[in-house]
From TrEMBL:
It comes from Lachancea meyersii CBS 8951. It comes from the Eukaryota. One of its GO terms (cellular component) is proteasome complex. The lineage of its organism: Eukaryota, Fungi, Dikarya, Ascomycota, Saccharomycotina. SMART domains: WD40. Belongs to the WD repeat PAAF1/RPN14 family. Pfam families: WD40 (PF00400). This is LAME_0H05028g1_1.
């Protein structure tokens, strides 16, 4: 896949010309068709009457499709760019930041609130207008994962300091600290109504916790490689099935649920939370660490998993055939995939050294068609979460970056 990079302040160039500050201006678009090649294109901006005109050179095209979307066709290579609908970047890092590392959202009665974690161990709660209403010093290191409990009144956080904490989203009181991992906590999940939670760690384990007591109910790990570090984890709910009427001590609502863990080896393992069995392991087809995962949100596609790897590969797995990925896409510069998010039939992916991309998931053509690059200036996007509108996604990242696409 070719990579596209547009000048971070290209919108300012357009505004300066349209407002009459300058009669013309230019901005660049860099295209990387391969790891060793960068092609630079210049787009001239002029005003023709009241309309802004773009000239990308002979045979090339650049045009504005909507307020936030632009399209380019450069020597036959096509892409779209999407700018933020709202830029909520935090200019002050006194209470939070500078680098946001995780995010989650909670919707109720038409209102949405957000929680973000930063690289200094702090958590922040934002209201429906994205105003910071609560900030707490939660951990001693990066907050790698944050989750709202189903009530929306409680937040779970997990950190590189190897701890999990349960917080009041109202006053910031820490109700419980969970210790037991021997490596950084990398991901979390809330089971059912929240009496149990799941966590993964670079120590190679997934743990099932009981919140009231703080006890570890069970520890899951690969039999063949129990210390194979886990970088990402997602929970899957397939219905209670045959265990619906049964219960385990200190377990509530675990029947019919499973977790998938992405390992340093590149293997993705799946565990039945209730039976404690490892039900499948994918191959390490791409010989690279699995760094991020997301499940399909389509009821008609319950077996699809999207995984990103340290070598820049993005893969679509069908859990019915764990021996080989159904589709995969290679980046041009081997930039590590840092986040994967699925929402309303769109796949959002961020990379360590390049732009974040949004794909339309097309069951007929595959999931990696019709790519749109998310314009985030010079900031790297580290996490995505659903926004208050179903069609909007909030993203957070470096230097206090926070924007809605």
């Amino acid at each position: 896949m070719a990579s596209f990079h547009i000048q971070p302040d290209f919108l300012d160039c357009i505004k300066d010309v349209s407002s009459g500050v300058y009669s013309e201006d230019t901005f660049f678009i860099n295209v990387e068709p391969s790891a060793n090649q960068v092609d630079e294109y210049r787009v001239k901006v002029t005003l023709n009457g009241n309309a802004v005109h773009f000239d990308a050179g002979e045979g090339n095209l650049f045009e504005r499709l909507s307020d936030q979307t632009f399209s380019a066709c450069l020597d036959g290579k096509r892409c779209e760019f999407r700018t933020p609908k709202y830029d909520l970047t935090q200019t002050s890092t006194e209470s939070l930041g500078p680098n946001f590392s995780s995010a989650d959202s909670y919707k109720s009665c038409g209102n949405t609130k957000y929680v973000v974690g930063d690289s200094f161990g702090r958590l922040g709660i934002f209201d429906d207008r994205q105003r910071l209403v609560l900030a707490v010093q939660g951990h001693y290191a990066d907050v790698n994962t944050v989750r709202f409990f189903p009530s929306g009144q409680v937040v779970l956080s997990g950190s590189a300091d190897m701890q999990l904490k349960i917080w009041s989203a109202t006053d910031g009181h820490c109700a419980r600290t969970l210790r037991g991992h021997r490596g950084p906590v990398t991901a979390t999940a809330i089971v059912d109504r929240g009496r149990n939670i799941m966590s993964s760690s670079s120590d190679g384990t997934v743990k099932l916790w009981e919140c009231a007591s703080g006890d570890t109910v069970h520890t899951y790990a690969r039999d063949s490689s129990p210390s194979d570090a886990i970088n990402t984890m997602v929970m899957q709910d397939s219905g209670a099935g045959q265990h619906e009427a049964e219960s385990h001590q200190q377990e509530f609502g675990t029947a019919g649920k499973s977790v998938l863990a992405g390992h340093d080896s590149g293997v993705i393992s799946k565990y039945d939370i209730y039976t404690k069995n490892c039900v499948l392991e994918t191959s390490n087809q791409f010989m690279s660490s699995c760094r991020a995962m997301a499940l399909s949100d389509s009821p008609s596609d319950p077996y699809s998993v999207y995984a990103g790897y340290a070598n820049g590969i993005l893969a679509n797995w069908d859990l019915r055939n764990p021996s080989k990925a159904v589709h995969h896409l290679s980046g041009t510069n081997d930039s590590e995939v840092t986040a994967v998010h699925v929402q309303e039939g769109q796949l959002f992916v961020s990379f360590e050294q390049s732009s974040a991309v949004c794909f339309d998931i097309n069951p007929r053509l595959g999931p990696f068609e019709d790519s749109t690059y998310l314009v985030s200036g010079t900031n790297r996007i580290s996490a995505f979460a659903a926004s208050k509108e179903a069609s909007e996604t909030i993203s957070v990242g470096s230097e206090g970056f926070c924007a809605v696409y």
